[in-house]
Amino acid sequence: MIQFHDFGIDIQTYTDRGKGNDFPDVNQCPHCSSRRPLHRHGYYQRYALTAEGEYHLWIARYRCQECRKTVSVLPSFLLPYVQYTRSVIWQAVKTWLETPRRGAKTKQVGFPTKEVILFYVRRFLRNLSRLHHAAARRWGIIGPVGNARTERAVWWMQTFGGTGGGLDHPRPVDKREVASVCGSNYFLIFYLTPKMEIVDVPTNPSSRRISSRFVR
Description:
Layout: E1 2-5, H1 11-17, E2 39-50, E3 53-63, E4 70-75, H2 86-98, H3 102-108, H4 114-126, H5 128-139, H6 149-161, H7 175-179, H8 186-189, E5 196-198, E6 212-214
Parallel strand pairs: 1-4
Antiparallel strand pairs: 1-6, 2-3, 3-4, 5-6
């Protein structure tokens, strides 16, 4: 199982620190719910791609003393089983959706490739209904319903990216609360990634509790 943690640093700093990063404590097993702190169980290496280059990262793995299953802690700028970073995919999808004409879209494609961008654009569009219901339940945010899918997708990205306006919900978005889900625009990435489960969000932005998990 994979859990996420916001280390509060960029990918270059995380890479430079290697195994010396400030890895969080995992105090409850997501497999068996045991409250015995999990033991650090080594590291594994994975890659991440940005427009600036390729990074080799050390990921910490933990083992539960009760069920003996393992948990890996992924920095919040990564996605499970995807080499491109969260920000790369976010910006690529946002740019694609906000560009009105197909010819203009193609001209703007540089990194990642057009095929990769379309893969995440289509996944995002397929999950708009799920996003709509989750946001309404968690924050009382009621997104547009009757608009075309692309217009709704842009609205959600602008809203959680901090540039939206005219939110139709009873209270403003608490940026600290959104940020605790691994970054203000990270919420949408849950819906670009399959089998992502959102768990309770801590209200204290400095909390070291891991706030989301990826279930195989």
